[in-house]
DNA sequence: CTGTTAGCGCTTTCAT
DNA sequence: ATGAAAGCGCTAACAG
């Protein structure tokens, strides 16, 4: 049997309460006593039983996720994952809630953050836009002692406690590299569709893409579709019309529906298309060959990571960063995971 | 607060012990009583607190992993992940151990399985070879009531309770598809290096690869390197010498060291090379451009999945299959995860 | 500053 | 067939 608080208390010659104080470094223990207890802890090789601890402090952690509203499938997927995690949340002593705000709207985002601060939640996870007001709101959360993690798109110098998402520069580079190889010697320029240059993840992906593109290949000026299907559709349609020799398209944002509609309208099967986020749409497009590769960040992993990090921060525990790194998945037609149909059961820990 | 066993006892008008008997359907409860309790359970929407349950029954589950010995880096990686999981195992009330046996040796494997059965472990996870004696040993484990999962390579009709690993046919298809695109119109045959056609995962990958290859592309007869670096080296060296116009190599087995040595000896940068399993060697080869893509199954995910499944089976709980699916990762130079150097901290749950 | 005591939600003897 | 009571390992009042 592994050592318990009782064993520590005994070998250190103190009471349980004192051991507990040292363990959770709470005030009210003399230096010598503390030293004795700590000695006992290391000599016995004690490791705390987290499950028992959680059981004893029957505290719950209200966490709020702030996400862009609208029909962006990736964001709705994130929301679904939060709800899914919510089913299991009582076991982890968390209570999850979701607030949605208009996309790319700094003011609304700030309001939502302040509302969460008012409610005195134990942690906030948000998909943020890059604006000074937002950084200020994050600073207020910090000042109120509320852990804050950025989700999907980072805001590094805002004082957020942690970023949960992929390395977006690497994502752009991956797209560029893949596009380069798929195109080979085939001539023609490539187009890039983004949502908005006002979110950092889109800017970073663009940078990475440019960096990985051979200099001999022309990259057209970025099209900003505001992650809106209709706008994206017309931008891509116009682009296809204006550039009959176009060789490829990289969509680094969320306007996949518009993109795919435009592609199927033109029926240009010779185009190399790379998009982000595996959704029902991109999956179907991958299967029909309209899209060649999809880069993905797993929404379930991100949500669970955000929860773990917020909980850790909430009780002052360290975050094991290696464990919280979010990988960039590459999907092609052949390594698609089983579809949502076969996948209905709420997952918990992930693989 | 969500309902507890006390609430059930109260609304059903019985004692805690009876509630527990019904909950764990243990004998010794009259039909009527049972019905009353069950009614209370559903009406209150009770869900058992697993952590508390585990705390109370301070039972431990001894689990054994049986892996091939030798310097196969992927297998050593698996072993390392088992040890890593072992650090956290007390919290999950499991005790992990590893047994290694000579690779591709059915007799040794059978001995190890029988030894585990004798020790009366709570579960066995093994990388198995495809042989009737092995199936028989698995059947003995089953008869002894010991859950058995196959790891990495399956043995479907053996009575194993579960398979933890990737879809190897899809893996082969992915390799073929990627190779086809990377090669484009470039002429030349492709070679395939395997470990042994006696393990099912290698056969399945080969099948998938052939299926995804355009008929216009010649695939040379498979080379069996026994996952041995020296043998793999000479097979590939000879092959390169004999086929000066070779366009690509797919290594579906573990002989990466030999392969890479042969490649760097020849200095043929124009070759498209796809291999399996992200190890220090394949990572380096990816970075230097000697290898173009690496298909990977995450050893950490597999180990944790095996543990979850064995535990679930051990206490008769259902396995959430959607949660236990192991994905096939594609890595290219640009989406390599942070290296082992930055990654030293033992991870627990994974993303 | 330190100790005593009563739980958290569930399981498990041991009685009845 | 059912119940009472004592824990599992830890935390949290409340006393001293």
From TrEMBL, chains A, B:
Residues 3-57 form the HTH lacI-type domain. Keywords: DNA-binding, Transcription, Transcription regulation. GO terms for molecular function: DNA-binding transcription factor activity; transcription cis-regulatory region binding. InterPro entries: HTH_LacI (IPR000843), Lambda_DNA-bd_dom_sf (IPR010982), Peripla_BP_I (IPR028082), SBP_2_dom (IPR025997). The keyword DNA-binding applies. This is Substrate-binding domain-containing protein.
């Amino acid at each position: 049997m592994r050592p318990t608080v009782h064993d520590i208390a005994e070998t250190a010659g103190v009471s349980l309460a004192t051991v507990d104080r040292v363990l959770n470094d709470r005030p009210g223990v003399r230096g010598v006593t503390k030293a004795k207890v700590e000695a006992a802890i290391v000599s016995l090789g004690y490791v705390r039983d987290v499950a028992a601890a959680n059981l004893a402090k029957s505290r719950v952690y209200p966490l709020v996720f702030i996400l862009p509203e609208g029909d962006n499938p990736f964001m709705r997927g994130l929301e679904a994952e939060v709800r899914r995690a919510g089913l299991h949340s009582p076991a982890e002593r968390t209570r999850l809630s979701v607030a949605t705000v208009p996309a790319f709207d700094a003011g609304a985002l700030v309001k939502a953050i302040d509302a969460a601060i008012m409610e005195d939640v134990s942690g906030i996870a948000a998909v943020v836009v890059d604006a000074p007001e937002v950084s200020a709101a994050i600073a207020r959360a910090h000042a109120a002692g509320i852990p804050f993690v950025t989700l999907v798109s980072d805001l590094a110098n805002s004082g957020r406690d942690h970023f949960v998402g992929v390395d977006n520069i690497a994502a752009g580079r991956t797209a560029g590299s893949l596009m380069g190889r798929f195109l080979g010697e085939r001539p023609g320029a490539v187009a890039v569709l983004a949502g908005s240059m006002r979110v950092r993840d889109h800017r970073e992906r663009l940078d990475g893409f440019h960096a990985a593109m051979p200099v001999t290949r022309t990259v057209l000026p970025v099209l900003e579709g505001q992650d809106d299907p209709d706008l994206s559709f017309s931008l891509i349609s116009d682009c296809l019309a204006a550039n009959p020799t176009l060789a490829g398209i990289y969509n680094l944002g969320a306007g996949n529906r518009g993109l795919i509609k435009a592609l199927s309208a033109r029926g240009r099967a010779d185009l190399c298309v790379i998009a982000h986020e595996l959704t029902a749409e991109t999956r179907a497009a991958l299967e029909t060959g309209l899209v060649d590769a999809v880069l993905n960040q797993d929404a379930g992993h991100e949500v669970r990571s955000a929860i773990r990090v917020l909980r850790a921060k909430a009780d002052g525990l360290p975050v094991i960063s290696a464990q919280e790194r979010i990988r960039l998945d590459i999907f092609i037609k052949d390594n698609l995971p089983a579809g949502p149909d076969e996948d209905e059961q709420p997952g918990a820990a992930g693989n």
